[in-house]
Amino acid sequence: xxxxxxxxxxxxxxxxxxxxxxxxxxxxxxxxxxxxxxxxxxxxxxxxxxxxxxxxxxxxxxxxxxxxxxxxxxxxxxxxxxxxxxxxxxxxxxxxxxxxxxxxxxxxxxxxxxxxxxxxxxxxxxxxxxxxxxxxxxxxxxxxxxxxxxxxxxxxxxxxxxxxxxxxxxxxxxxxxxxxxxxxxxxxxxxxxxxxxxxxxxxxxxxxxxxxxxxxxxxxxxxxxxxxxxxxxxxxxxxxxxxxxxxxxxxxx
Length: 253
Ligand SMILES: NC(=O)c1ccc[n+]([C@@H]2O[C@H](COP(=O)([O-])OP(=O)(O)OC[C@H]3O[C@@H](n4cnc5c(N)ncnc54)[C@H](O)[C@@H]3O)[C@@H](O)[C@H]2O)c1
Description:
Elements: E1 8-12, H1 17-28, E2 32-37, H2 40-50, E3 55-59, H3 65-79, E4 84-87, H4 103-123, E5 133-137, H5 151-171, E6 177-183, H6 189-202, H7 206-213, H8 222-233, E7 244-247
Parallel strand pairs: 1-2, 1-4, 2-3, 4-5, 5-6, 6-7
Helix pairs in contact: 1-8, 3-4, 4-5
Nicotinamide-adenine-dinucleotide is lined by residues 12-13, 15-19, 37-38, 61-63, 88-91, 112, 137, 139, 183, 185-186, 188, 190-191.
């Protein structure tokens, strides 16, 4: 028996590293999965990697309220329920010093992370029964100020924690749970891009520095983040809501 037998899971940022690793875990545990992302071709590539008949894909901008609601409706139309929403879409935003950070870059970053998480929490519960689970991907940047070179991302990741806490309170009486995960540095293209830009700004090898300072002495694999997502999606975490879950190799300890 799987941890998510016959559960219907919608994953935003589903063509990306953490989204795909989580979808793979969900499928292994018996779920049906809808992947959402910006580009059809990338969604098809992701679907091919999953090699399962229990996957559908849908182009959906996570900042679009109507499209987000329509995606949840489509999942229910396809499979009869909506049990898990993994609100995970995101981008690194602008990397730059405070005086170099434009208002436009700040707002754009808040939109994808903060508004994206808000829309998931606003729309998903109306399709969920008791036992539903919403999981938001925040970051270590959601609980600390960082290195001072990504103020939009830090603000947006903190905003997601606020969205999670308020939404968890709002839907708890209906038996729906809302949690946030906070990954540290993952060994993937998203993080490599950030680290390369930070290295260029500081002149310090940021990847090496992280590997020295992270207590577990390495970056995470996306699948290790997905393990926590699976736990929060499943009834193993039935009494866990409104909480911030670090998956950071001890970075914030
Ligand atoms: N990579 C890391 O080290 C790290 C650390 C902490 C938190 N995170 C967070 O994890 C989440 C997943 O990131 P990842 O590492 O898998 O990176 P990724 O780039 O592989 O995946 C992110 C996905 O989100 C999609 N996306 C971006 N904007 C979107 C939008 N408006 N609508 C729909 N989809 C959109 C992208 O197309 C991409 O497929 C992000 O929220 C990121 O902020 C990542």
